[in-house]
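Each letter names a residue; the fold follows as C-alpha cells. Both lines appear below:
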Amino acid sequence: MTKIKSIIILAFFVLGIHQFYGQSYNFKTSGLSVMQKDQKGKWGKWSDLKLVDILVKLDTDKNRIVVYSEIIQLFEIIDYIPLEESETDNVYSFTCKDNNGEDCTLSIITRKKQDNRKQLYITYEDRIILYNIFNYK
C-alpha cells in the first residue's frame, strides 16, 4: 500500500493535478450535484448544479479526505486505488469510510478533453455526490 500511495503522490505532483505542500492537497468547489437510486435500484437524474464554495482537503499523511461543507464530511482512506487513465480522463480513486462508518469511493477525475476540468465524485451504494473542483493553495 505504501508503494501505491507513493505512486499516487508522485503522479499528482508530476501531472500538475494540484499544488504540492507536504502531503496535503487543497481544492475548492465551484458546483454541487447529486444523483440517487430510485426504489427499483435505478439511477435517477442529476440534480441541478448548485453553486458552492467549499474547501476540500486530501491529506495522505492522515489517510483522510475532508469536505468542509456546512456539515463536515470526513472520509478515512482505507485503500488507494491505482490510477486509471484513458484518452479522456485520469481517475484517482480511494476506498473510504465516512464519519458515519458508511463505505464509499471517492474519485478525483481530471477531464483531459475539457480543459483539464476536475471533479470529485463521492459514490455510495444508493447515491453519488459530485463536486466540480479546482486547485487551491
